[in-house]
Specification:
Blueprint lengths: L2 E4 L8 E3 L4 H13 L5 E2 L5 H11 L4 E3 L4 H12 L5 E5 L10 H10 L2 E4 L8 E4 L7 E5 L4 H10 L7 E6 L5 H13 L5 E3 L2 E4 L12 E2 L4 H13 L5 E5 L12 H4 L5 E6 L2 E6 L8 E4 L7 H11 L3 E4 L11 H11 L3 E4 L4 E4 L4 H4 L12 E3 L5 H7 L8 E3 L12 H7 L3 E4 L1
Parallel strand pairs: 2-13, 3-12, 4-5, 8-9, 16-17, 20-21
Antiparallel strand pairs: 1-21, 1-22, 5-7, 6-7, 9-11, 10-11, 13-15, 14-15, 17-19, 18-19
């Protein structure tokens, strides 16, 4: 399904409730499969978490994770450690192009029995669960934090725990820290010292004092930051449920969007986003090595505001649902931007006529809209949708948002956007 999105008036002063973080949910789903007395609320309502839940609760011998990269990595480690269980883990055509060799090799060094069924280094995998007794391991830290998290999540259930040495600078470090914080929260004494993480064995967890409440997803909040940034001064949107001391690295969006004139006020579990001022029209340079999932949102915001930008630390984007750097380049160039990309950064110079061409209430708003391809990537759909503040956009394959945020289009309507199925 394609949708045409445009804003006939101004943003309504709405209150949007966003479900729990997909990252936290999928970690806790796996931990609760290992320790059934772990209970949590406000789980993510998303395709990725649904895939994780069904895989962990079912008895299928063939498990298709579709586009869910987190599920592929986490479940590879989980089933490798399930003695006597044999599964085939597969996914979409794109998933079969996403590398997993670093994780598979690490698990093999722990004693795992994993076989590639098609191309070496890529899914699908045949996994025969075994007792993993080796407990010392070194992994490359600069490729994907999900490999490291997958190992850490199963570590306390291993007979001898795990001593994991990180080789090189870790990418998406906040996601590793999130994993460690959740392990600590459920009573597992995981420690990160220098470049080594030590997780002691923990056969059972019997001392949980409370139910865990999952914070809402900051990656999903980023699209509302973009909407407010692209709107006139005084525009406000309220989101829940969020907290200042977030485990999620993407909460960095609070400070980043201050540079675009967006102020954030925390009130109990709510945040109120307000366009307090117009940003200075200067070039914007940001290292997103720790928060690559918000790169697309920031890139589109900069373009919509007429601000040049250079975003670095993005080497992981080439192995996501699509090559996100290439996809951004293609779609922004359609709109007139000058874009260059390398393996780890993107530089954007907006079209000099974009701001004057698209003004609120201009005749161009009655046109059919700029067509944005999404490449089976939920973040491409949601990152470009905020441009509808300024111009009509047609988002192709708009249903792809269900991967992380199924209610996205309904929530856009709540703010006053018209979302018409084409």
């Amino acid at each position: 399904m394609d949708v045409r999105v445009h804003l006939p008036g101004s943003i309504k002063n709405g209150h949007i409730t966003i479900t729990g973080s997909k990252s936290e949910t999928n970690r806790l789903l796996l931990l609760s499969a290992l320790y059934p007395n772990i209970i949590f609320e406000n789980a993510s309502v998303s395709d990725d978490s649904d895939v994780m839940h069904k895989a962990l609760c079912g008895n299928n011998t063939v498990i298709d994770v579709q586009h869910a990269g987190t599920a592929m990595r986490f479940l590879t480690a989980f089933f490798a450690s399930q003695e006597g269980r044999e599964v085939v883990l597969t996914g979409s055509a794109r998933m079969k192009q996403r590398p997993i060799a670093i994780l598979v090799e690490a698990l093999r060094l722990l004693g795992a029995d994993i076989e590639y069924l098609e191309n070496e280094g890529f899914p699908p995998l045949r996994i025969k669960g075994r007792k993993l007794t080796n407990n010392r391991l070194a992994v490359k830290a600069g490729v994907s934090s999900q490999y490291i998290t997958a190992l850490l999540l199963i570590a306390p259930k291993l007979e001898n725990g795990l001593e994991l040495t990180l080789d090189g600078q870790a990418t998406s470090l906040p996601y590793i820290q999130m994993t460690l914080s959740l392990l600590n929260e459920v009573g597992i004494d995981a420690k990160f010292q220098d470049n080594t993480i030590i997780v002691p064995p923990k056969p059972e967890i019997n001392n949980l004092k409370r139910e865990i409440i999952i914070e809402s997803d900051w990656s999903s909040a980023s699209y509302y930051y973009s909407i407010v940034a692209l709107s006139p001064e005084g525009t406000s949107v309220t989101l829940s449920s969020y907290k200042k001391n977030s485990l999620q690295g993407d909460s960095a969006i609070v400070n980043i969007y201050q540079q675009f004139g967006v102020e954030t006020i925390f009130n109990n579990n709510n945040i109120r986003l307000t366009k307090a001022r117009s940003p200075e029209p200067i070039a914007f340079h940001l290292d997103l090595n720790s928060t690559p999932d918000i790169a697309q949102t920031i890139a589109v915001t900069c373009f919509g505001l007429g601000i040049g930008c250079r975003l670095t630390g993005l080497h992981t984007l080439k192995i996501k649902e699509t090559d996100r750097l290439s996809a951004l380049k293609t779609e922004l160039e359609k709109l007139g931007a000058e874009v260059s990309v390398t393996d780890d950064h993107i530089s954007i110079q907006p079209h000099p006529g974009f701001q004057s061409r698209y003004q609120p209430c201009s005749p161009s708003l009655e046109g059919p809209g700029e067509v944005i391809a999404t490449y089976s990537d939920h973040r491409m759909a949601m990152a470009f949708a905020p441009l509808a503040v300024k111009i009509p956009v047609i988002i192709q394959d708009a249903g792809v948002v269900s991967k992380s945020y199924p209610a996205f289009w309904e929530d856009m309507i709540r703010l006053g956007f018209l979302v018409d199925v084409q």
